[in-house]
Each structure stands twice: as C-alpha cells, then as structure tokens.
Amino acid sequence: MSQEKQIAIEERFARVFNDKSFKERLSNTDFERYFGAKKKMSFQKHDIIFDDGEIPKGVYVLEKGAAKLSKSGSFGKDQILRFIKEGDIIGYRALLCGENFQAKAEAMTDIECTFLPADVFMDLLEVDPQLSFIMLQKIAYELGESSNTITFLAQKTVRERLAEILILLEQKLGTDPEGFIKISLTREEIANIIGTATESAIRLISEFKGDQLIEVDGRNIKILNHDKLMKLGHVVL
Q1: β-sheet bridge partners, residue 48
Q2: pLDDT tens across 50-69, in order?
Q3: pTM (2 d.p.)
Q4: Is 60:90 a contact under the CB 8 Å cutoff?
Q5: Closest CA to 213 of 193, 234, 229
Q6: For 65-119, what is each residue's pLDDT tens digit?
Q7: What burial class does residue 185 get, using C-beta atoms within 10 Å of its C-beta: 0-12 exposed, 13-18 middle, 19+ buried?
Q8: CA distances (Å), origin 212, targets 162, 175, 178, 186, 215
Q9: Are β-strands 104-107 and 220-223 bridged in parallel, bridged antiparallel, or unpaired?
C-alpha cells in the first residue's frame, strides 16, 4: 500500500475514534457508556502491554510513545511483527476472532494510551457504521502488510531487507528534529526484523554507514541517502 493511502486510513481513524466524533454520532446512552468505560493508562519502556496467549480484555489506542508487536519462535527468539505508533489501535484482532492474543505488545518508550473494554468496543462496532468501516480498512491494510512481510523475508537478501526496513521505519514512525528515525533499536532487534543473526546486522549497519547511506548515533539511525537506499532495497512508496 502506498504511503498516501496508509496516511489516509490513519487520518480517518483519528477523525472517527475520538470523544467529539462519538458524541456527534452515537445516541446519548451509547456515548455515556463509551465515555464512562474508557480509561487512561500508562506504561514505562519495556513494560508488557499484553502478552502472547493472554485473554484480551479490550483495545488500546496509543496517544504517546511507540510499541512493538512480536512473537517468540520455536527457539525462543522474538520476531518483531510490526511497530505501533501514536494514533494506532492494538488488541482488536484477537477480540474480533474470539481468541487469545497471538503476539506480545511491548512498550519501546514510555507510553500513554486509552483503554476501552472489550464489550464496549464490540458494541461500538455494532452501532457505529463509520467505526466499523475504518476498522475494516485497517484490517485489510494489516493483511497486506503481513503478505508483504512474507515476500520481504522470502525473496530479498539480508542487505536488501535492511535497506527496506530503514525506509519503512522512517515512513511509519517519522523523524526527530535532527533527522533520526523516531525509535531506538538494539542491533538484536534490527536482526530480528530482517531475519538474520545479530552479528550480520552489526556488519551491515557498519557497511551502510561506511557507504554514507546512514548516520549512526548509538541506537539511533538517520538516513542520509534515501534514493540509494530505496534503490538498494527495491522500495516503491
């Protein structure tokens, strides 16, 4: 999916999922139930928001910070599935499927979010067509992301994967005032994303730095040459 379409879905979700918009669309009874049930929550960096196998109790809308969804493989090694940023909602897939969580959500920074209990969220989907429609769009988008991940891991070299993931991380999470991608990843986390050994990830990052494709400051990375990195990773935005 193009970056423009992704942004459009995110913007529509933000317009639909907020107190003012719900107040305008819902009946007084439905709005009061929603407003009385939602609550603010906070998590510190490395806190587990929900765990793999846990029974879902509701959904979480991030208002500040970033998180990651990951799943442990057969050898106990985490595979990062995707990143969650401000404005994203998580926890709804398991609710809609009627199953336990199939992944772990972990705070990568300090987080502030709104929690909405499962029964209230499900009732909102029944009475609010606009919310139902945007959730369908988000599910379709995430299905496309999953398909791309399979292709990403199966058909590209590790070097190509690293180039692509840096471009996509910048696209999804944005940059700070100095131009660094708004997330600090360990070399092990980068290795998990691109499906390689930590040593290989360290070597490739060093090569990218030497080729002046990126600038590295500890765990922070800034893209210096977008065109070359996109060409290397065969990325089309």
Answers
A1: 106
A2: 999 999 999 999 999 999 89
A3: 0.83
A4: yes
A5: 229
A6: 999 898 886 666 677 888 898 999 999 999 999 999 999 999 988 999 999 999 9
A7: buried
A8: 15, 18, 17, 20, 7
A9: unpaired
d(CA 20, CA 62): 18
Q: Kind and range of the H or E element at 115? A: strand 111-117
Query: Distance (Å, rounded) from C-alpha 69 to C-alpha 82?
Result: 5
Radius of gyration of the chain (CA): 19
CB contact at 8 A, 16 and 32: no
Whole-angstrom distance, CA of residue 115 vs CA of residue 107 = 15
Q: How far is CA 151 from the centre of its chain?
A: 19
DSSP H or E stretch at residue 131? helix 129-155
Please list, residue by residue across 190-201, b when 16 or more beta carbons sit within 10 angstroms of its beta carbon and e when fewer do. Answer: bbbbbbbeeebb
- What is the C-alpha separation between 2 and 144, in angstroms, rounded? 11
Q: Write out the H or E segment, with its range, that includes residue 160.
A: helix 158-173
Q: Which two tokens stand for residue 196?
A: 């390689």
The sign of the torsion formed by the CA atoms of 180, 235, 83, 12 equals: positive
The SS3 of residue 182 is: coil
Low-confidence ranges of the chain (pLDDT < 50): 1
Query: Quick one: tokens of 209?
Result: 């730095």
With a CB cutoff of 8 Å and minimum separation 6, the contacts of 27 are 127
| Residue given tokens 């590790």 in the structure block | 158
What does DSSP assign to residue 45? Answer: T
Give the pair of three-digit tokens for residue 181: 């991608």
